[in-house]
Amino acid sequence: MEPSTLVLAEILLLALITVESGGAFLVRVAAGGVPANDLQKSWYRAGHAHAAVLLVLSLAILAFADHLDVPTWVDWIARSGVPVAAILMPAGSFLSVLGKNPEKPNRLSLLIGLSAASLTAGLLAVGIGAIATGAGNA
């Protein structure tokens, strides 16, 4: 693994600790220790789940990243698209329902759309890059 890829993998592994603390928060919400309405509970769960899945997916993508023979800007999107989505999606899920008994998500829910765009760009870059490079044949 390239040194820069290894550093990113280490950061992503440490970021999983935030998912762990999010799980502890969800336990407190479920136990009634943190007041939350049904909207908040569902958005908190979605944010937590997406954070975990996208961080693990980010780690898996790094296995391909070092084998891509693509322009630098494509390589950058391939390496950063999914990790950026792993930050934006849960941020949008949690921050858009903050407050006391919100009835609907606030404008920060736009972060979820930005996350989807980042996720799509990252997956396209690594997927097409891997096919074009023949990374599966290495």
Offer a concise description of the structure:
This protein is mostly helical and 138 residues long. The protein has helices at 3-30, 38-65, 72-95, 110-133.
Question: Keywords for this structure?
Answer:
mainly alpha; elongated; 138 residues
Question: What does this protein structure show overall?
Answer:
By secondary structure, this protein is mostly helical. The protein has one domain. The chain has four helices and no strands. Helix 1 (about 5-30) packs antiparallel against helix 2 and helix 3 runs antiparallel to helix 4 (about 110-135). It is elongated and about 50 Å long. It starts with a helix and ends in a 5-residue tail after the last helix. Keywords: Membrane, Transmembrane, Transmembrane helix.
What layout of secondary structure does this protein have?
Blueprint: H1 3-30, H2 38-65, H3 72-95, H4 110-133
Helix pairs in contact: 1-2, 2-3, 3-4
